[in-house]
Records
---
Amino acid sequence: MSTAQQVPDILSPEFAANPYPVYRMMRDGAPLIRHEATQSWIVSRYEDVERVFKDRGDRFTTENYDWQLEPVHGRTILQLSGREHAVRRALVAPAFRGADLQERFLPVIERNSRELIDAFRHTGRADLVADYATRFPVNVIADMLGLDKADHDRFHGWYTSVIAFLGNLSGDPEVAAAGARTRTEFAEYMIPVVRERRENPGDDLLSTLCAAEVDGVRMSDEDIKAFCSLLLAAGGETTDKAIAGIFANLLAHPEQLAAVREDRSLIPRAFAETLRYTPPVHMIMRQTATEVTLSGGTIPAGATVTCLIGAANRDESRYRDPDRFDIMRDDLTTTTAFSAAADHLAFALGRHFCVGALLAKAEVETGVGQLLDALPDLRTEDGFEVVERGVFTRGPQSLPVRFTPVS
Ligand code: HEM
């Protein structure tokens, strides 16, 4: 194992400003770092992160979520393994793919995107982060669940607090306290809604979750509340960063933006490359069940492992010229990019592979398509340089754009 003294710390301002050169140093010279402040072992090479994610639970478990997420959500499928995970996942997964996604929820996605764009399409300028990306996915989930539109702002506040709790690597007590408050507030809001929906089911996702049954197992009110809390955080923050990221990357490469504008079937390619190049989630943790040897050394049993997705996705042993954004690259497969057979690591892999990957794809395809239609001549505000924010999740802080308004 390397002592990695020359590698900037993952909690340093230098790393937060631009983690990519640090990721390279880690992959090259310190593929396994013992990190005291987070009490974890950091891995950065593609082959190691892939191996951790694909493990069936014998060597790497998700027990880290007992302290990383359970205090804010309650218990969710992220913490489960084996048959219990399979059954619980089967209860929720059908709503996020196939006919449910295409017929029930695609109209919800299209409507929510259009409403946001209508608010700025005639003005000639917008901040694609504040006016669109941070609003769209959370509005979609709230609407899919059949919740009151008037409550969307509260949802926005809750998911921000949950994500801050998850990424609280430095253990800030205020962030922890805000997370605990969110858990109470969310339960007070959600449990009565779940009970009411059991009495009066509708055609919404919440009613589907109330009625879902696999092998005689159904979800309790508490299970549903916890899952909804996970949906807000897992589906809001991530897709928000993905949409901002795809536009930041395309605007920085005008010829690729022009190609996507010309041929909308390239949107999934641009999304897959964005997931590789600037993944919304940069770190995912696991807990070792036994002593494990990875590149650079051996990790003891019972340790926390920090898997750096952002580093693994730019591993030169896996991708040619990995620091180049190229939607036409031939070493990233778009057809499998939104399934558990993906070769980028942005949705993780294995049994906890993102349940919402196809929903995210539908949101991005709809959102990017509608924005390109509504905003001709789209360009970044003069003199603006994109600043990325975040270490655990990461994306553009703002993205002010100009365009020619259509009458
Ligand atoms: C670009 C957008 C997204 C990214 C990058 C992303 C990323 C991830 C990652 C990395 C995991 C694995 C966590 C782990 O293994 O510890 C995950 C799991 C999950 N995601 Fe996503 N996600 C996205 C969108 C969504 C959406 C839209 C939803 C649903 C509304 C969603 C719901 C979930 C759920 C429920 C899990 C847990 C699955 C399980 O434990 O079996 N995600 N996601």
Note: Residues 62, 77-78, 89, 141, 230-231, 234-235, 238-239, 242, 280-281, 284, 346-348, 352, 354-356, 359-360 surround protoporphyrin IX containing FE (CB under 6 Å).
---
Amino acid sequence: MPATRHLPTSESEDLIALTREIAAKELAPRVDDAERTGAFPREVFATLGRAGLLTLPYPEEFGGGGQPYEIYLQVLEEIGAAWASVGVGVSVHALSCFPLFAYGTDEQRARWLPDMLSGERLGAYCLSEAHAGSDPAAMRAKAVRDGDSYVLNGAKAWTTHGGKADFYTVMARTSAEKSRGISCFHVPAGTPGLEFDAPEDKMGLMGSTTATVRLVDARVPADHLIGHEGQGLSIALAGLDAGRLGIAAVATGLAQGALDTAVAYAKEREAFGKAIIDHQGLAFVLADMAAAVESSRATYLAAARLKDADRPYGREASIAKLVATDNAMKVTTDAVQVLGGAGYTRDFPVERFMREAKVMQIFEGTNQIQRLVISRHLAR
Ligand SMILES: Cc1cc2nc3c(=O)[nH]c(=O)nc-3n(C[C@H](O)[C@H](O)[C@H](O)COP(=O)(O)OP(=O)(O)OC[C@H]3O[C@@H](n4cnc5c(N)ncnc54)[C@H](O)[C@@H]3O)c2cc1C
């Protein structure tokens, strides 16, 4: 049963209806195969771009959807419920557009943003390095000014859409100052010296390609610097606050998908002469799953409304990411339990949901890092 939503306008109701239609027609028929083979669904992002669903939170004047986060995240949740890899991809694309949108010059925005926001050009976000994940200020990738260019060298690990994207939003060091020595660059695919390792062999999210991006004397014109030198880490962290809300929404969708599968199965499957949902011990598991999904949704929506009201929301974004992804891990694990032996097979999607939920607790700041952010707010 799809989530019950209390949407503020008929336009937002239409957006959710459109998303459900595209999820049923375009995502559901492809997801199983792509997740088994690891095929990257580039055409799905083009479809979402054409439908106006890829960049909903950006203003219409630049080609975005002009929607508040409260609506964008619910659309993202619906996409995540149908296909987590695509939900993550939409969220990462929105994240990779953020620095240019928020810190770019008018000229840079006019040049690049329309294609990025229409979905013509898919983005990737390169912050992490092999030795600098939770602590990005430890990054070593360098950008050295050389005349009218910057020359970039280093390796950005774990890049979602690495090798598949059309542009890379890259953080690299322009000075030795730890957190104030990092800058942000727009690096188009096809830049000589932009190279990619083979995709990571992951336990889930196979439809989302993850690869190390190598910068080998990769030269970009000086006007590809976004913001000013030294501003890169604060740009990256500002983007992550919003990105964490995206991951919270995708995780909530994943949990909703697991709940729906478990409830449908529990109504059909019989044991001891009645449907297993009529055994209170099992029905209570389902009730806890439903309560967790609703709590996740309420938590990310509360943070989204703060953001939409231009109020500080970093602490609430971390809480939403922590709550929604821990809930997704619990709900998807319980869904496997509800399906019994069948849940442990690939005949049903719940084992995949469980594998996909795990990474939600890891990327865009592990849940330990979310606790660090929340506890620092408490200590202020
Ligand atoms: C599938 C996938 C896609 C990704 N996509 C991207 C992407 O598109 N762009 C990008 O830049 N990055 C991406 N990442 C990287 C991701 O953000 C990092 O993996 C994550 O931030 C954790 O960094 P790490 O793996 O280096 O773990 P580490 O930082 O080495 O952490 C290891 C463990 O130590 C814990 N830990 C570390 N520091 C502390 C502390 N201070 N207190 C308590 N515990 C701590 C962590 O929580 C974790 O449990 C992706 C990762 C994955 C798996």
Note: The domain at 10-116 is CATH 1.10.540.10 (Butyryl-Coa Dehydrogenase, subunit A; domain 1).
---
Amino acid sequence: MSAGNVTIDRVVTSGTFSLDGGTWDVDNNVWIIGDDSECIVIDPAHNPEAIRQAVGERTVKAILLTHGHDDHISSAGAFWELVKAPIHLHQDDWMLWRTVFPEIDPDVAIMDGDEFTVAGSTLKALHTPGHSPGSVSFHLASEATLFSGDTLFQGGPGATGRSYSDFPTIIDSIRTRLFPLPEATVVRTGHGDSTTIGAEKPHLDEWIARGH
Ligand SMILES: [Fe+2]
């Protein structure tokens, strides 16, 4: 199925998330996609040194950020110092980025449909706003895998109760961009356990009815 020997590693890191004056303890999933020589890192949160150790001697081709919430991005600068790979973030979340890094912009604005090649496979960016305006999911079709950030979790959509979030928008993103993917697609999330498109799809109407 895959062109090469693609590996997907998860590093779980711990820290805090702050927005709207509150702060919460969180565990984040950091995803490393690659092979023996190169990799791409998604959301290098909280513990840059642990992530660099998981990367090992491999070249980091890109740092991809699923969205601009500070638990996902606040260690991106320190991780950049370790690996010097370009940082990508959808422009609609740069206002969140600037609350953490007022002096510097991300290197590249992610556009819907952008493709990132690593280890002979391709990650495709799907703009899935709702949790935040610039939330992006990454589809690794060769491995039947979706990296959903905080857009889709086991049991429902990402939170939409705080600033810059919108529930109808996240539902629309999930319905039109994610649920058309093959049901066997493994959904690897920004926090917590993985799920599949097929496991979540039957519950869309329940989520709409409950409103979160
Ligand atoms: Fe988030």
Note: The longest strand covers residues 7-19.
